[in-house]
Amino acid sequence: MNILQGFETGLATALTWHALMYCFIGVTIGTFVGVLPGIGALAAISLALPLTYYLDPTDALIMLAGIFYGAQYGGSTASILLNLPGTATAAITCLDGYPLAQQGKAPLAIFVTAINSFVGSSIAIVLVMGFAPAIAEFALEFGAEDYFSVMLLGLVAASTLTIGSPMKALSMVVFGLLLGMVGTDVNTGQFRFTFGLFELADGFSIVAVAMGLFGVAEIISNIRQPQGVIQKVGRIRMKDMMPERGEWRQIVRPTLRGSAIGSFVGALPGTGPGIASLMAYATEKRISKTPDRFGKGALEGISAPEAANNASVQSAFIPMLSLGIPGDAIVAVLMGAMILHGITPGPNLINSEPQMFWGLIMSFWVGNLMLLVLNIPLIGLWVKLLSVPYNLLYPGILVFICVGVFSADNNVFDIFVVLGFGVLGYLMRRFGFPATPVLLGFILGPLLEENFRRAMLLSRGDASVFFTSPISAVFMGLSLIFLGSVFLPGLRQRLLRRAPVEMNEDDD
Amino acid sequence: MFKRTFLTTGAAAAALMTALAGPLAAQTYPEGPITIVVPFPPGGSTDLLARQLGESLSAQLDQPVVVENRGGAGGTVGANYVAQSDPDGYTLLMGVTGSNAISAALRDDLPYSPTENFDPVSIVISSPLALVVNSDSDFESVQDVLDFAKENPDTFTHGTPGVGTSMHMAGELFALESGTSLVHVPYKGSAAALQDLLGGRIDAMFGDILVTSEYIANGRLTALGVTGTQEHFLLEGVPTIAEAGLPDYAAFSWQGLFAPAGTPTEALDTLYGAVSTALESEEMQAMFRERGFLVEGMPPAESKAFIASEVEKWTEVVDAAGLKQ
């Protein structure tokens, strides 16, 4: 099936009244859970999963995927208005979004992020359409050693692209790897680091770790600070939302660059929207002629990361749909949804389920259009909804987080886990340790170990497979380049700094 | 401590009263909603079976039946929860081979015993597995595999969805009965194992018949034998492994409805009656055909004896393979 035929099949699927309805339900839920800090796309998708049981699998996926990318639109709203990310991936949007709100430009900021989100998604969807089938052809060639090298690249990239101290980021990746060791060993079935707690037999729940480190930690951090200024909200007019002529310049290029970065990062398995927005933000700040404006309400500072996280969410479907590798935790749940509907995501999906594949992709267009139309009139409502005082808001958010965590496995134990990680996350913030690398290590670590050991088992202990397998060798090389790009600039600087000193010594 | 003792006394008194009110309770059970715990996250065949069975039980017993997913540790977290629930017939488990037999063979630290802590209502369905290989491989029959494995110990690789799954046990039993040693390659779930089998990186899989039948139909995989005692309707013309060279070989995965030990016989009988009726329904029959399940519907006493025999069988295999944790 070529792209044009796929286009046709997909549109026929995505434009049926039921697909449109489920798409609308999905993106609406997504917008709401995105705006509400606490219940994120992960919890919402887990909750909605049993409800989709008797649906047509394509409709079910259209809806669940809608929640996923819909949440990326909503996530920035709370970041801008409350300095509290609605979703973990929108954390970076706080940096410039919140100052914009303080300047009374909240409607403008939210409007701009809606546009960025739409453009970012659109660019990535085009890539999914054009390249996912090509990747699928290639997918069956991936063995355990290749997966290992891909995951390794993800890990290296994650630790080198974070803003701030690379040492701290790296140490947090290692910490995440260790957390990932908890649970049942795949190869022997032994319980590791469970300390006799049967509840830890499957390791820490990803929901609990993510919500604790990001959500609960955020609340604890904010409790220590006085309530921010609540804007008196009048009627919001179109004029308040439209950027002025000079401001468009600060939006267009950063949005395009953010989309490109997001699409690339999202397609790399094991990365995800959090890293994409960080990278996009870091890039904008680095190439800007006026980096001082960042952190004080620069439109570039919200445009690039918002375009990037939406683009990465859409392109994250490439490894899932074509390789069967979930790019991040939420895609993993979506993959579970497909499995429950009797569809095994893997190299055969595009050929064996063309109607679902293309229907899903076409629904991305439909859903993103809906989100654009949905979000602009809602701006006024959000601004009011989120100006609830902290002492009322935070207990509510905590309840949402507990409900979100509990609902994943109906297990009270996970609530204590999330609270524990909340305290840990708060301490990490106080000492400047980033939480994102922990989550990456936690997700990638078990995959790395599993594939490493499987590769060794199948090669009968011959470690050279990581370099003799062509795919693995390429990714190993990329990892080395990544590592080099981090350490070389530092090395060069050190050499340059030493050079004048040596000359001075010669002079003496 | 005092509070706890008081509560224990209270529970004992309540149990006594329930026992005294036994005959009366038999006429009234069920008086409230029944919960069926599925020890896996939403998704998969156990969840689907529990939900369909629950719908039918609810209609017959005129009470709501709630399906609750309590996933974790291969089904043992959910099973443990039910083992410790009140034996009143209102909390039931949709148990499987792993949670209610193999785990007891595999783990010393399992906090419950499948034989002592459960009263089975019924073993509902069973399903054999299929020994499948990549169609490009040189193995054309079970005998080919046996010959190869005998000549090349520790070389023939078979992928499974994890340690202690029925697929893993089927492979270990194959090795035990044939006196060979195979390389067990565990994955996290069937999909990943299947992908490697399709890519030619592992030799074989003792796989779910439903999942593998699609690949068999399109010619990418070949089924060499089924692990059951007779030909399977989804794989016509494929011999059983017993027929094809390993005479005593038989392995099944199964799913059943379990109540905590001590549940009143009346409740078990009421539930069993409803399960039997449910199994005859057109809807359930259609689902079984589609999924490749064989209808069992064993009565409680027979189910109890079956579980004991399964625990014994897999304990032997686990001990022989040295897998005990």
TrEMBL record, chain A:
Alphabetized, the UniProt keywords read:
Membrane, Transmembrane, Transmembrane helix
Taking every annotated instance into account, which residue ranges of this chain make up the domain DUF112? 20-440
Cite a single Pfam family from the UniProt record. Answer: TctA
Does this entry carry the keyword ATP-binding? no
Which stretches are transmembrane?
Answer: 19-49, 61-82, 108-135, 147-163, 169-188, 200-220, 323-344, 356-380, 392-419, 468-488
Q: Does the keyword Transmembrane helix apply?
A: yes
Q: Which domain of life is it from?
A: Bacteria
InterPro entries for this protein? DUF112_TM
Q: What is this protein called?
A: Tripartite tricarboxylate transporter TctA family protein
UniProtKB/TrEMBL annotation, chain B:
> What family does the database annotate?
Belongs to the UPF0065 (bug) family.
Does the keyword Ribosomal protein feature in the UniProt annotation?
Answer: no
CDD domains tied to this protein: PBP2_Bug_TTT
Q: Secretion signal: which residues?
A: 1-26
Q: Which domain of life is it from?
A: Bacteria
Q: Which InterPro entries match?
A: BUG, Bug_dom1
Q: What is this protein called?
A: Tripartite tricarboxylate transporter family receptor
Pfam families in the record, alphabetically?
TctC (PF03401)
Q: Identify the keywords attached in UniProt to this record, alphabetized.
A: Receptor, Signal
